[in-house]
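Input chain follows. Return structure tokens only.
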Amino acid sequence: MAKEFNYTICPVANASYIAANHGFLSEGLKKIGYTPVRLQTLSKEHWKEHFTYENDRLFREGGNTPPIWAKSRGAEPVLIGINLIPGQQAIVVRADSDIKTVADLKGKRIGIPDRINATIDHQKTATIEGFEVALEYAGLKKDDVEWKFIVDEKPDFPDGTAKWTFKPGLDFEALDEGRVDAVFVKLSASEIVLESGKYRKLINLVADQKSVDPVNNEWPNVLTVSRKLAEEEPQVVIEYLKAVIRAARWAKDNKDEAEALLAEQTHGSVEQYRRAYPADFYKQLEPNFSSEGLESLQTRATFLYEHGFTDSVVDVSKWADKSFLERALKELDEEE
């Protein structure tokens, strides 16, 4: 009988989604007698493990806030890969607003979603950091604007299902009603709202990385695994990584199919996905441990601690375990 493990993937474009939805994952793990089971197919009490890591047999790829938060609280996700996800991070205003640049936000009200019932409010962390980066870029200080926290009582899975979809939240409702002057939105969701014609983009924080450091929840994207599984069944981790790497390499040669999957993953159309990500993004999906990725993740971990979202500063240099990726790459080279 095949052994099972769980996996969960955020709705941010990455190779794990391609691996899981194009057969690389099931085919690769079947060879060693394992079956991957998507976490969200389990009963509802397990869904929170996407954030808490209270699961000894879990792989997760996606935003960095939950694994950093969980590790700071004593969980032991092992960091086995990093990737810089250059998806759009946008500050938007209403289309009829007289605000033309980020500098014009001085004295204005910015909307911060505050999901008080979320296990860890990754959207709140992303919005705060997005605005802080934008304000610094424009030469403004944090107290140059009015921070309006918009309480949202929805839980992690507000529609009662484990399927993630994008719907404009209460921060956009506040923007529509004139209670705030600007909000933050990212990835394909940014193009979904802009396509409505109701809003106008002031800045995309990843467009000019020489001027702006776009560290945020998805910059970098991280791949992690439960420590118990990594320690007791390391070959599973190696085979999982090999499947993800194969998926990333397949994407380079299969642009249209890859982009269709990534658009599906990010809940947008292919055109919305293409406007939200760089033209060559499908070539950049392979996990790695670049110095830029490690530095960006440390910056993010420090931000989360300094803003009270985590209980301690996670030391990324000690957290990263490069051995699994090195062994996966070596085995792939030998196989090919």
